[in-house]
Amino acid sequence: MASDGGIFTFGDAGFYGSTGAIQLNAPIVGMAATPDGKGYWLAAADGGIFSFGDATFYGSTGASS
What we know:
Shape: globular
Distance between the termini: 26 Å
Oligomer: single chain
Number of helices: 0
Radius of gyration: 11 Å
């Protein structure tokens, strides 16, 4: 994972999407995989959450001020 949200996969890791082509308001600072490994969440420094694959989006505080 890169700070712009670009995802790099190796081995049998699945690629489910990224924010690499999106202009973010804050860098990506964390990532978590879903329990079955078929999705992931990216977390931005401003509270933005991005979900990919089978990761459910529950909301984010990225647009809050």
